[in-house]
């Protein structure tokens, strides 16, 4: 069996998770494989050689990345040069489309196979990007069925692999085990608060989220609050906000464990993102919110082409859970919505049934399916030839 070289680039934590699972699945089919590019700790643990710290790619919004543009352009040039010299059988860009698609286009034009894993939100805004995608990638891997249909309509080779989280998370309710693990009193209602994993997200959302917690406590005094922090920096940021804004609030901040925190909760208040899919798979009612910087929001609101932005609503193609933007993100709006999610049993039962239906649609063995496509595009069959 000859050595197979695969380039791989992930720019944030969610991509690191997908990349690590993909590397693991490819190794199971083709053990003699070498991965190089950019990855986080999980990908590195699976044997990927990362050429720089993944955090250098982690930027958010529309305007904010402009501040980091010189550095990002240097990283692009470095990766293009590296892959041209290294000559991998295929290069995989995981999410981070504004960074990865440029590299993929450059390499494909020079004869290197490319694959993009996780569709950009091209179906929602800036739909003209599909023309560049068609030129940049040999194959698109999507996580959601509605994305696959979009690419088929535009003639881009595509496979919907489903979502790895749907394979990992059980359909059974994990509430009791999660509460025992976190030592949460089973007699109290619990609100999980997830203000995001990036500093900018937490800055935008932590104050209205804490104000909402105070609002809820006045109406339901026995409610408890759990906040998972993505890392030590976010934990310090959240604790500082609590000390400044809500010193008397019965809130516990834990490091990591966002899935455990959501499973232990009765309802979740969260920033929009992949964690809203986790909450759906954990069968937790939720309110999803997001706030942009002023100029980012002006651009976003003009370009967006879809009525929804949260993953549960996009997957259902209807308003399954409340979602709020900008000035709507305040205690007076969020609080009553959370109470409805907490106290309306009929609504909760119907919501969980919808969540379970979506869960089953997404559980497809994503990483193994993605590995099959990667190896096929790289010209390698399952018997190693």
Explain what you see:
The chain has 385 residues and is of the alpha/beta class. It has two domains: 4-162 and 364-377, 3-Layer(aba) Sandwich (Rossmann fold), CATH 3.40.50; 175-362, 3-Layer(aba) Sandwich (Rossmann fold), CATH 3.40.50.2000. The protein contains 17 helices and 13 strands. The chain has helices at residues 13-29, 41-45, 69-86, 97-109, 129-136, 145-153, 164-168, 175-182, 199-219, 232-245, 258-264, 274-281, 294-303, 311-316, 331-343, 345-362, 366-377, and strands spanning 4-10, 33-38, 49-50, 90-94, 113-117, 139-142, 158-160, 190-194, 224-229, 251-255, 267-271, 286-290, 323-325. The strands form two sheets. The protein has a seven-stranded parallel sheet, sandwiched between helices. A six-stranded parallel sheet has the order 10-9-8-11-12-13, sandwiched between helices. Helix 4 links the parallel strand 4 and strand 5 (113-117). Helix 1 crosses helix 17, helix 4 (97-109) packs across helix 5 and helix 9 (199-219) crosses helix 15 (331-343). It catalyses: a lipid X + a UDP-2-N,3-O-bis[(3R)-3-hydroxyacyl]-alpha-D-glucosamine = a lipid A disaccharide + UDP + H(+). Keywords: Glycosyltransferase, Lipid A biosynthesis, Lipid biosynthesis, Lipid metabolism, Transferase. InterPro entries: Glyco_trans_19 (IPR003835). Condensation of UDP-2,3-diacylglucosamine and 2,3-diacylglucosamine-1-phosphate to form lipid A disaccharide, a precursor of lipid A, a phosphorylated glycolipid that anchors the lipopolysaccharide to the outer membrane of the cell. Pathway: Bacterial outer membrane biogenesis; LPS lipid A biosynthesis.
